[in-house]
Structures are given as C-alpha cells and as structure tokens.
Amino acid sequence: MSEGVYRIYGSEMSPYSVKVRSYFRYKGVPHLWIARNGDNEADYKAIARIPIVPTVATPAGEGLQDSTPIIEQVDALHPEPSIHPADPDLAFLSALFEEFGDEWGNKLMFHHRWWDKVDQEASALTLARLSAPRADAAEVAMRQKMIQERMTGRGHFVGSSEATAHLITDYWFELLDLLEPHFADRKYLFGGRPSFGDFGLSAQIYEASVDPTCGAGILARGPAVLAWCHRMMEPRDDGPFESWESLEPTLAPVLAYVGRYFLPWSQANADALAAGQAEFSVDLAGRAYVQPPQKYHAKSLAALKARYAAARTPRLDAILDAADCRRWLAG
Fold first, then answer.
1. Across the chain, what does the average pLDDT equal?
2. How far, in Å, CA of 82 to CA of 95, rounded?
3. Helix (H) or strand (E) holding 184
4. 3-state secondary structure at position 281
5. Whole-angstrom Cα distance, residue 238 to residue 194?
6. Inter-residue contact 258 to 322 (CB < 8 Å)
7. How many helices (H) and strands (E) does the chain have?
C-alpha cells in the first residue's frame, strides 16, 4: 500500500459507504475503494472492531468506523475545500441535514428496499453477487435467498411494519416533492458546492434510486433530485455557498419537513429508550407512528443537541422556530 493512502472497505449497496467515498473523492484525499467480500476478510478483520461497512484503514493502519466520525476525523486533517458554510447558522443547518439523512433518510430507503418482493429480490441478488463476485449461479442463488431472508427480518430496526408501511411511503414522496424545486436551479443543498448535509442525505436517496420501487418514483417525480444524487457520487466545488436569504424559499419547506417528522420522532425515540419501553408511538402530522426504539439514534440526537447549544444565535433560533425545529433541539 502506498504511503498516505486510506483504504475504504465498503459496499455499493451501503449508503454510509458511498457517503464516505463521496467525501474522499471531493476532498481529493488519496484512497483505495475495496469492495468488502470474502477475498479481503483477513485484512478487513485486522482493522474492524465490529462487522460493519464502511470501515476505513488510515495510512497508519488505524481502523475507523461509523461514517460521520470518519468524515469528521479526516476533515480535521483535510479542511479544504470546506464542507461547512462560513455562516455559522447555515453550518448548523447543514449538520442537522446530515443527521436527518443518516437517520430518517435511512428509514425511507431501508423500508422500501426490503418491503415489496420485487425490491427484496433485486437487492438480495445484487448483494449476493457483490459478496461473491466469482461464485457460480447456484451459489449466487443460495446467497440471494439467505440475504433476502435475513434482511427482510430486520425492518423493525427502522420501524418498518404493516402498520407503518403506508406512512413511510407517504413520507418518501413528500420529501421528494419538497426537494425537487430546491434542486431545480442549484447543484447542492446550500449552493454551488457540497456541504456536510449533502453527504448524509444524498447517499440515502441515491441508494433508494437504484431500487425498483423508489427508483421508478424518483424518475417520475424527482429528476432534479436524482441528478443531485448522481452529482454527489463525484462532487466538486462549482461555486460558493449561498446565503439563507437565497436558500429560504425552497429550503425552508424542507426544514419544516424535518421539524414535522424527523425531530419529533427523534425525541420520542430517545424518551422511549430512557423509559425502557419496548415500543413507542408518536404523533407525526396528525397520524400515529409506532415502532421499537433505536439505541444509536438517541446518542446521535444528544450530539446534535449539544451542537445546537454551542451554535445558538438569535437568527438561527428564528429560522428553527419558523420550521418548528427549535423546541425539539432545546430540550
């Protein structure tokens, strides 16, 4: 391995993997993309604390895991070109969208990927081929069946169930319809260059776009969103970040979506964990959403609240109040 080169062990079907790869590409940080499969098991296990992707090996041989900390650690060493708007209020909003993408965007993508049979079969087949690129047809079929059975049993992790399926589909199309006008005349969430928030949200929507059901929906209803997702696979600096005044007409409605669904769900999830509940129900825009709590997200919500406490300004509070976001972050 060449000196100074990072190794990214990931999967084309993992939103967090393509998120990290997109970041490395934008920064121009020397790296090698390694498709995670049995051929590199020993090298992978030497640096992985837990069996997840992406796992990144630093040039010094240290293993990094979890996409957000990976980006934050590498960004401290490679701050330019910056992924954080110089306007501190916009920098916080970017961080909020990054968290929104990682947690809520993943719910939308994962549910649809493993809900309908056509999506289950297509996704399982792709993963089977990726995990064993030299396998024959019989082995691929066996792997496909195994993956499909395993993954369709994990929907509870993101709240996917018969009771919530129609709600999640509504959330997906509502988000697409809000993002489409925002990207009609700009390349990235905050203007002419990618932000922290772009990396978190685009990766989830990109993964949804390669699946049959969500892919058809995004082609029909979100061509500008689809173009953004593909642009984020090879992002570049095409201009400055915009001001809130120029972003507000189309980004404020997306921020209001965050305040309508993601943040109240996040708080209800954290409250349920604190109370030791096996399941919680939260009112989201007048409809009850029920699921088991997610442990990891409670930690990331606490980190987001700490970031907000450090970033508070009267202007930021006004922006968040208008979107009904602040009350969920101030507690």
1. 97
2. 13
3. none
4. strand
5. 9
6. no
7. 16, 6
Helix (H) or strand (E) holding 160: none
Token output for 163: 């009771």
The pLDDT of 301-310, averaged and rounded, is 97
Q: Which amino acid is residue 43, in one-letter code?
A: D
Q: What is the CA radius of gyration of the chain?
A: 20
Count the Cβ atoms, other than its own, within 10 Å of residue 82. Answer: 15
- Separation CA 167–CA 161 (nearest Å): 10
Q: Whole-angstrom Cα distance, residue 140 to residue 76?
A: 41
Q: Are 103 and 300 in contact (CB under 8 A)?
A: yes
| H/E element, 314 | helix 314-322
Backbone angles phi, psi at 78, to 5 degrees: -130, 70
pLDDT digits (tens, 9 = 90+) for 178-207: 999 999 999 999 999 999 999 999 999 999
- The predicted-structure confidence for 139-165, as pLDDT tens digits, reads as follows 999 999 999 999 999 999 899 999 999
What does the alpha-carbon distance between residue 267 and residue 235 come to, in Å, rounded to a whole number?
Answer: 33
Closest CA to 331 of 248, 287, 247, 274: 274
